[in-house]
Design goal:
Rossmann fold, 2 domains, 8 helices
């Protein structure tokens, strides 16, 4: 579903060019979920932007579903660490926004407004936000706004779900509930997932493959296959295989620069 070949990306600040990521080569099978972990500034979020088409690779090629990525993709749902909700719209208005955009562009996935609102309410209920439909974002806690952002990313049933630390603002108990919700989504919907996280337990619970990145510039230093069964239970995180993998990745990230994948 996703293929990166020799991908590098430079950003320019005050006329100075800096390489953010270099020589990234990997493939993500359809319906798989992969995670990127690593120290801050290693280019994890940049990779999500490259995959989604929000930025163009400086070198190498990015392909999604067999086609080069040359512009923002319509099949993507994204949720970020900062919810970026529209403050002048209600919760319901924020969640159905992607469907309104699709409708304006004549996309048949949009459906009618009544169906869109019903789907939005169903998603809000599944993430524990019953009765907030007509509230403004300013009336919600940070964790609640984050869950609204996730619902907005899911409303159009995307083929690619790209998550940039979307659960970081949640308390530990709610975060684990959202992990289980993500797993339920994967059992019921057909999508390919890419997750950026600093939480190694989260990566082990949600992903089949975890890429550990190093810095200056960002590279894939190590790739780990997670052998836990699917669907997973929270108890699996205490299995010897999971605890050893978490320990190993922590040491690799502390090392900062890694070695050969």
């Amino acid at each position: 579903m996703i293929e990166l070949r020799g991908v590098g990306f430079d950003y320019v600040t005050n006329g100075r060019r800096t390489r953010a990521v270099e020589e990234i080569t990997l493939a993500v099978p359809r319906r798989a979920c992969v995670a990127f972990v690593g120290p801050s500034g290693c280019g994890k979020s940049t990779l999500l932007k490259l995959i989604s088409g929000l930025v163009r690779a400086t070198t190498g090629t990015v392909q999604v579903d067999g086609r080069p990525v040359v512009a923002p993709l319509k099949i993507v749902g994204m949720a970020f660490q900062n919810p970026t909700l529209l403050l002048w719209r209600t919760v319901l208005g924020n969640v159905i926004l992607p469907l309104e955009i699709l409708r304006e562009n004549g996309d048949q996935r949009a459906g009618n407004r009544r169906a869109a609102e019903a789907l939005a309410r169903d998603l809000l209920q599944k993430v524990g936000l019953v009765g907030v439909e007509h509230k403004q974002p300013r009336e919600l806690s940070g964790g609640m706004r984050q869950r609204v952002s996730l619902c907005r990313a899911l409303i159009h049933e995307p083929e690619l779900l790209l998550l940039d630390e979307p659960f970081a603002a949640l308390d530990a108990f709610t975060r684990e509930e959202m992990w289980e919700f993500h797993q339920t989504l994967r059992q019921n919907w057909t999508f390919t997932g890419v997750l950026v996280t600093h939480d190694l337990r989260e990566a082990v619970f949600l992903a089949e493959t975890i890429y550990v990145m190093s810095t200056n510039p960002g590279r894939i230093a190590h790739a780990h296959t997670v052998g836990l069964p699917f669907p997973r239970r929270l108890e699996h995180l205490f299995d010897p295989e999971a605890t050893e993998l978490i320990r190993m990745m922590r040491e690799q990230i502390r090392g900062g620069h890694g070695g050969t994948p």
